[in-house]
Amino acid sequence: MTWINRFYELGPDFSTAVLPSPVPEPHWVAKNEALLNNLNLPTEWLSTPEALSVFSGNGLWEGMDARASVYSGHQFGHWAGQLGDGRALCLGEFQTIAGSYEIQLKGAGKTPYSRMGDGRAVLRSSIREYLCSEAMVGLGIPSTRALCLTGSPLPVLREELETAAIVTRIAPSFIRFGHFEHFANQSVEALQKLADFTIKNYVGVPEQSLGNLYADLLHHVSLKTAQLMAQWQAVGFCHGVMNTDNMSILGLTLDYGPFQFMDGFNPKHICNHSDHQGRYAYEQQPKVAYWNLFCLGQALMPLIDDQEMAMKALEPYKAEFTSQWTQRFFAKLGLAWPDDAAVENSDAKATSMALIQDLLAIMSAEQTDFTLLWRRLSHAAPQTDQSHQAWHAVSDLFVNTLKFKAWQSRYMDHLQTQKNDVAVLNMLNVNPQYVLRNHLVEIAIQKSKEGDHSEVQTLFNLLQSPYSEQAEFEHYANLPPSWAADISISCSS
Q1: Cβ-Cβ contacts under 8 Å for 453 (sequence gap 6 or more)
Q2: Alpha-helical segments (H) within 205-261
Q3: How far apart are CA 191 and CA 182, in angstroms?
Q4: Which residue is catalytic, options 13, 118, 216, 245?
Q5: Residue 427 contacts by C-beta under 8 Å, 6 or more apart in sequence?
Q6: pLDDT reading at 127 higher than 70
Q7: pLDDT digits (tens, 9 = 90+) for 323-345
Q8: Is residue 473 part of a domain?
Q9: Range of the domain at 63
Q10: Which of 26, 194, 265, 356 holds its CA 20 to 30 A away from the CA of 480?
């Protein structure tokens, strides 16, 4: 394997060489052999004692150069100053048939940026990240990837004493908004070097420029972030800690901590019990993303040097998010997307928007299960008979069935006016049958703590195809049990 390590070439101001800290008695918890095969990586990566040693932080292969990068950021809206890879180590960058990827150990021990932390991750949080990163890919949502997960009996203290684990994750780059914020406060020269590196390797020069390469970079990241937010909202995903240092410059879902796929729909849902003000509630995520982009814009101002141009680069975020959100929810309801140039479609579009907003309002009032509602509706929509069992399955999710049925009549009437049955039939491809609900991953965690990792693998396999009916796993799509509401996740999750 040839290691290229382009990020390291930026110089010592950007990363610090540090060896991972060994753990006793490492063992495999999970292996993503599908990802290994997709990238055409050597099978030895997940099959030898040497591999177990490397992915547990107990050794390095020739050519690896373990480093932690420095960045800064805003946390919960406040400037936190210097941060960095406090428990993550990049082992280098390798070339695959799908492009170049950085490979990183998360939980490999202290780095110069660990501050007061121990640099470790625990089995509980590592299982959550391993499964969710791959679940997001299954849903078609951009994300960092997880190659494998190892564990150790090494004790780690969080709210209670737990055991250590290390996630091996990959991405084209782990550059964050916070990297730019850091160097904006350090050196314009270093900031420009980072920006030029990002443009050259990950963004490129746009066909239509704003007249400034760094404004173009901000514009590109704004659009990517808007698209990601729309995708999150469409599946009810809550990140939980959208600090600027947790935002990917590539528009990837990054850093899985107190995440949650909503059960009952509540726009004000707060999944992170450390978020006492609700800054990162579900309905706030698109606004927070824009605020984070504004921080990125401020960091790039020494290079853009034109406030009006910077705002022009940011402005498309709002329109792009609205467009992406609208199209996704049109698709979730099987509503044909009208041709914007066709004036006659304006009324149909307004009717469709009203149907979406009214359904969300009914769901919010009763906190209807988000995933189950959309999936059942996908089966019901093709049925033109209001008394069909598929429609009963939808109405059964509501207490106020009269209110839902009134909406149903309007919806069915509207479907009859559109001449596109494909959109209705495609609902099953946009409304997942399975998501990584909190109670499902909690069951897997408890089994793994007892040494049984089979449920981790079961969930992994299931979530590779979340839009497919899988009869043997049908119960994984059921309403969550009552105890699921008591699961507490926080910034230490």
Answers
A1: 29, 30, 447
A2: 213-235
A3: 8
A4: 245
A5: 331, 332, 333, 334, 374, 377, 378, 381
A6: yes
A7: 999 999 999 999 988 764 433 56
A8: no
A9: 7-47+57-177
A10: 356
